[in-house]
């Protein structure tokens, strides 16, 4: 039996594309054995572990190199950060040994590395064992993990045109971002079906909020401040808020302090949502971070989005994603600093979009241009070609 290893962890932006690729590999070649290697202690590790496409799931140690966009030299002088980086450097060494032993046992024909900290020990071990692997980058700026292991990759799958990246041109392949098969252009009929599944009124206004698989404290706080105003302005508004893993109770308690019992009946709070396509497909307006995977999903669905990019992620890749969309007129972008200066900014922007159907349609049409429906299949074929 042919074994294929898929690895990546740390965020929904790494894990959900892996699930999409795994499902497509099984569809194209049902007899292949898929093995997932995750990071020990990953808060989202249960998601791939429960996915039916994987035949085996393992974890190894991995370490994070902490660096923050805009912090400059200050972060190099921060003692707690230095200590954590030193500890995690040891975790990487342990992870390389664990990965080396695991890969010798599994003997995969090829490895797919989506990115994230776990990609470093797995990739380095694979390089030492001469096991071919393919990396994938969703953003214009490759992640640090993929930059470290990139020199030994047989292929670099990327979301944007190959010339955007510094990888060797002859090994770089533009595939787009792999998405789960459930994501598709949302018609009026499909939107009604999604709302029926979620028990939402067909003619209601629906706002969906998602700050990533682990959530975003800044986005959650801004939304919790804005939603009471919106619910009172729009009596037919329903809000679906994916607050992130571990944030559901605190967010619901915060809403409870701000909303009446009748208003609370029009809001639902979740932690990690597996079937995001249902909630985003049912929405009129989406408030989201600028993670490349979520943006690709909503572009394919053709959704009007308010994007709040993270200012502190290394490399500033979310800022670049958001700036590009704003320049093309494909989304409304609000900087985190603007939210802190003006607490009503988010409420005003959301209100404007909820009222203006033509404006939503215009954003939707421009956003759809970025969709690449064939990305998952192309990436699965790229992996199978290595067999």
How would you explain this protein's 3D organization?
Helix 5 links the parallel strand 5 and strand 6. The chain is globular, with a radius of gyration of 21 Å. The chain has 387 residues and is of the alpha/beta class. Helices cover 45% and strands 15% of the residues. The termini are close together.
Write the layout of secondary structure elements.
Elements: E1 3-7, H1 12-28, E2 33-39, H2 46-49, E3 56-60, H3 79-106, E4 110-113, H4 119-128, E5 133-137, H5 144-149, E6 155-158, E7 172-174, H6 188-197, E8 205-210, H7 217-233, E9 237-242, H8 248-258, H9 261-264, E10 267-270, H10 276-282, E11 285-288, H11 292-301, E12 304-307, H12 317-327, E13 332-333, H13 336-341, H14 345-355, H15 357-368, H16 375-385
Parallel strand pairs: 1-2, 1-4, 2-3, 4-5, 5-6, 6-7, 8-9, 8-11, 9-10, 11-12, 12-13
Helix pairs in contact: 1-16, 3-4, 6-10, 7-8, 7-14
Strand content: 15-25%
Work out the number of β strands. Answer: 13
Identify the CATH architecture of the largest domain. 3-Layer(aba) Sandwich
The CATH topology of the largest domain is given as Rossmann fold
Radius of gyration: 21 Å
Q: So how many helices?
A: 16
What distance lies between the first and last C-alpha atoms, to the nearest angstrom? 12 Å
Structural class: alpha/beta
Short description:
With 387 residues, the chain is α/β, with parallel strands linked by helices. Helix content is 45%, strand content 15%.
């Amino acid at each position: 039996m042919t074994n294929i290893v898929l690895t990546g962890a740390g965020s929904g932006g790494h894990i959900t594309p892996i699930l999409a690729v795994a499902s497509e590999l099984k569809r194209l070649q049902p007899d292949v054995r898929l093995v997932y290697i995750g990071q020990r202690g990953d808060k989202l590790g249960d998601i791939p572990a429960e996915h039916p496409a994987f035949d085996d799931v393992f974890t190894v140690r991995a370490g994070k190199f902490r660096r923050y966009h805009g912090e400059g030299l200050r972060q190099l002088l921060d003692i707690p950060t230095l200590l954590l980086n030193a500890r995690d450097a040891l975790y990487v060494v342990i992870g390389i040994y664990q990965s080396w032993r695991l890969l010798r046992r599994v003997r995969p024909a090829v490895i797919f590395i989506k990115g994230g900290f776990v990609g470093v020990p797995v990739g380095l071990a694979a390089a030492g064992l001469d096991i071919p692997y393919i990396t994938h980058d969703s953003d214009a700026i490759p992640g640090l993990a993929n930059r470290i292991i990139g020199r030994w990759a047989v292929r670099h799958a990327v979301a944007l045109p190959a010339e955007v990246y510094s990888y060797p041109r002859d090994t770089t392949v533009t595939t787009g971002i792999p998405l789960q098969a459930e994501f598709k252009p949302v018609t009026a009929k499909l939107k009604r079906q999604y709302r029926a599944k979620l028990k939402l009124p067909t003619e209601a206004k629906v706002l969906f909020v998602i700050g990533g698989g682990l959530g975003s404290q800044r986005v959650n706080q801004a939304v919790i401040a804005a939603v009471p105003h919106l619910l009172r302005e729009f009596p037919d508004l329903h809000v679906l808020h994916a607050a992130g893993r571990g944030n559901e109770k605190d967010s619901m308690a915060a809403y409870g302090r701000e909303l009446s019992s009748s208003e609370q009946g029009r809001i639902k709070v979740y932690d990690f949502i597996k079937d995001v396509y249902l909630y985003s497909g049912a929405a009129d307006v989406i408030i989201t971070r600028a993670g490349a995977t979520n943006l690709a999903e909503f572009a394919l669905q053709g959704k009007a989005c308010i994007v709040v990019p993270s200012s502190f992620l290394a490399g500033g890749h979310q800022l670049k994603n958001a700036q590009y969309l704003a320049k093309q007129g494909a989304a409304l972008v609000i900087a985190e600093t603007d939210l802190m200066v003006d607490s009503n900014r988010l409420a005003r922007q959301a209100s404007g979009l909820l009222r203006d159907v033509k404006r939503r349609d215009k954003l939707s049409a421009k956003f759809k241009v970025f969709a690449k429906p064939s990305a998952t299949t192309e990436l699965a074929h790229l992996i199978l070609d290595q067999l």
